[in-house]
């Protein structure tokens, strides 16, 4: 019964789209289920990489942490997305830290099983390339934003991005970003100090663009935020 539940879920994961029922069943028989607490480090940069993670519930952040503890968040991933695939392909250590933003449940797949799946169905390799290409483009965009946008523009753009990927429409209007988002977290996403982000959030709140409540942000005026990017 548990394998059937896993098969049903894995069929919905983009990475495994196109696999036959038999291949999905075989995949479901070898994946393991793991759970992580909010704030738990799933792996560190340079750790050996032998496992692919597919998120079943919850959200994680992929980030880089400097020797002095400064953090830059690269991306937030949620249900149905995967991480850890790069090390499975090149055999090198992890390229970044991954930290649970809330309680997370994952399916894990060992490198040898992942390679076997690719050999049986090369379409998986194409879909892995799509994932990697998307993340590379996102990284390029982050570099461009740091060069050309001020802090107000970077925060506005990030809030719109999070509202698009993790937003939940509210009955009374507005889009709730469905994740715990502290000023420090947001600062690490836009490459700014917490004090600068605090000032920007205060300005956006005063203008009615957003509202905040217990580390949750609701976006009310999408178009006004868009106009503030540039």
UniProtKB/TrEMBL annotation:
<feature type="domain" description="HTH crp-type">
    <location>
        <begin position="149"/>
        <end position="223"/>
    </location>
</feature>
<keyword id="KW-0238">DNA-binding</keyword>
<keyword id="KW-0678">Repressor</keyword>
<feature type="domain" description="Cyclic nucleotide-binding">
    <location>
        <begin position="15"/>
        <end position="135"/>
    </location>
</feature>
<dbReference type="InterPro" id="IPR000595">
    <property type="entry name" value="cNMP-bd_dom"/>
</dbReference>
<dbReference type="GO" id="GO:0005829">
    <property type="term" value="C:cytosol"/>
</dbReference>
<keyword id="KW-0116">cAMP-binding</keyword>
<dbReference type="GO" id="GO:0045893">
    <property type="term" value="P:positive regulation of DNA-templated transcription"/>
</dbReference>
<protein>
    <recommendedName>
        <fullName>CRP-like cAMP-activated global transcriptional regulator</fullName>
    </recommendedName>
</protein>
<dbReference type="Pfam" id="PF00027">
    <property type="entry name" value="cNMP_binding"/>
</dbReference>
<dbReference type="InterPro" id="IPR018488">
    <property type="entry name" value="cNMP-bd_CS"/>
</dbReference>
<keyword id="KW-0114">cAMP</keyword>
<dbReference type="GO" id="GO:0003677">
    <property type="term" value="F:DNA binding"/>
</dbReference>
<keyword id="KW-0805">Transcription regulation</keyword>
<dbReference type="InterPro" id="IPR018490">
    <property type="entry name" value="cNMP-bd_dom_sf"/>
</dbReference>
<dbReference type="InterPro" id="IPR036390">
    <property type="entry name" value="WH_DNA-bd_sf"/>
</dbReference>
<dbReference type="GO" id="GO:0003700">
    <property type="term" value="F:DNA-binding transcription factor activity"/>
</dbReference>
<dbReference type="InterPro" id="IPR036388">
    <property type="entry name" value="WH-like_DNA-bd_sf"/>
</dbReference>
<dbReference type="InterPro" id="IPR012318">
    <property type="entry name" value="HTH_CRP"/>
</dbReference>
<dbReference type="GO" id="GO:0030552">
    <property type="term" value="F:cAMP binding"/>
</dbReference>
<dbReference type="InterPro" id="IPR050397">
    <property type="entry name" value="Env_Response_Regulators"/>
</dbReference>
<dbReference type="Pfam" id="PF13545">
    <property type="entry name" value="HTH_Crp_2"/>
</dbReference>
<dbReference type="InterPro" id="IPR014710">
    <property type="entry name" value="RmlC-like_jellyroll"/>
</dbReference>
<keyword id="KW-0547">Nucleotide-binding</keyword>
<keyword id="KW-0804">Transcription</keyword>
């Amino acid at each position: 019964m548990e394998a059937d539940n896993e098969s049903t879920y894995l069929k919905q994961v983009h990475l495994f789209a196109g696999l036959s029922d038999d291949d999905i069943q075989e995949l479901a028989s070898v994946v393991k289920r793991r759970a992580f607490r909010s704030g738990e480090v799933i792996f560190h940069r340079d750790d050996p990489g032998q496992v692919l993670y597919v998120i079943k519930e919850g959200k994680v952040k992929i980030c880089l942490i400097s020797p002095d503890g400064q953090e830059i968040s690269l991306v937030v991933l949620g249900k149905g997305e995967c991480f850890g695939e790069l090390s499975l392909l090149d055999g090198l250590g992890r390229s970044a830290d991954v930290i649970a933003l809330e309680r997370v449940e994952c399916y894990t797949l060992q490198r040898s099983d992942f390679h076997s799946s690719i050999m049986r169905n090369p379409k998986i390799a194409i879909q892995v390339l799509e994932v990697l290409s998307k993340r590379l483009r996102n990284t390029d965009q982050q570099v461009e934003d740091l060069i050309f946008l001020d802090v107000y523009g970077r925060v506005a753009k990030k809030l719109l991005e999070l509202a698009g990927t993790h937003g939940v429409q509210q009955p009374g209007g507005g889009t709730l970003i469905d994740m715990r988002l502290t000023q420090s977290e947001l600062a690490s996403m836009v490459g700014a100090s917490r004090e600068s982000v605090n000032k920007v959030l205060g300005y956006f709140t005063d203008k009615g663009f957003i509202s905040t409540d217990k580390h949750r942000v609701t976006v009310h005026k999408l178009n006004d935020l868009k106009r503030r990017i540039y």
